[in-house]
Amino acid sequence: MRVLAAMSGGVDSAVAAARAVDAGHEVVGVHLALARNPETLRAGARGCCTIEDSGDARRVADVLGIPFYIWDLAERFQQDVIEDFVAEYRSGRTPNPCVRCNQKIKFAALLDKAVALGFDAVSTGHYAQMIDGPHGRELHRAVDMGKDQSYVLAVLEPERLARSIFPLGDTLKEDVRKEAAERGLRVAKKPDSHDICFISDGDTQGFLAKHLGEQPGKIVDTSGEQLGEHSGAYGFTVGQRRGLSIGRPAADGKPRYVLSIEPVSNTVVVGSAEELKVSGITGAEATWCAPVPEPGAELHVQVRAHGRAVPARLVSASVPEPSGAVQTLPSTVDVELIEPIAGVAAGQTLVLYRGTQVIGSSTISATS
């Protein structure tokens, strides 16, 4: 197969590319330039897609003996990830930019361009597995649960997953680093990237304040009583406990948490830890990686990339009316949590699992 290896400049994508070469594929490496002004991206290891990363990726390609290119997707990244991030916070939701980047950039813009150029598949360093199942290729969790990235890949449609290769899914991270060292790759000890790559100083609230400006509003309890003021509701997230700027403690002396953010009234609602728990989640824009389960199916759901999966029961999955001869995918999903969880916010991604298999995902629109 002709395989395009996405090379971020880190150890994972380097070893993934090397394994694609070992598998006998015709491999070409590509690094994505995602910043309009690369010098504004953070240096070092706090984020990804830095100037240093492109150099590291090129050196790995030289060692592997494969062609290497840099593709400029900065405009798409600005529109589909950064502007979406700001718009979601403006609307009172809590987005995951890494999910959106995988969906819109790494497995839409990149994969679509690769296919147009005649490549059969894209290889990445994500920790996940594609396994043959009764209904075709299935997306599963990685063997290394501490590094599992199936959550951020759950937004991919089956046709894109069918053209995706994840060579590291069956390997522990420590073994990937050992393999990189044995191959003579200088990135073997390079620290993992973390934080939001396009926020250079790691100050998310400062970034949002710059883009959204000061928007004073009220902090109230569930009865509507005003407890304090804020300079921008976008600076709060559901489940937040610290930095609420409330002048007096609760009547019972227990901590207060952010329960919801109401963008129309620019109000932040706070309450007790018990009020923070939810037992039902509704999601929109559902994507299904596997056949849609019947209502009543028992699954596990996860609402954060590195959060804990909890047991749940599928209540419904709505199916829009067919358009012509083509049946469109279900667009909404409702689940009942068998074990209530706290800190669930609109805008987060809800991912459904059956065992290790990813069933589907949706963007959380409401909780109960």
From TrEMBL:
Q: Which domain of life is it from?
A: Bacteria
Where is this gene product found?
Cytoplasm
Q: Domain tRNA-specific 2-thiouridylase MnmA-like central, which positions?
A: 206-272
What are its GO biological-process terms?
tRNA wobble position uridine thiolation
Query: A single Pfam family, by name?
Result: tRNA_Me_trans
Which family is it part of?
Belongs to the MnmA/TRMU family.
Briefly state the protein's biological role. Answer: Catalyzes the 2-thiolation of uridine at the wobble position (U34) of tRNA, leading to the formation of s(2)U34.
Query: What protein is this chain from?
Result: tRNA-specific 2-thiouridylase MnmA
Organism, by scientific name, is: Kineosporia babensis
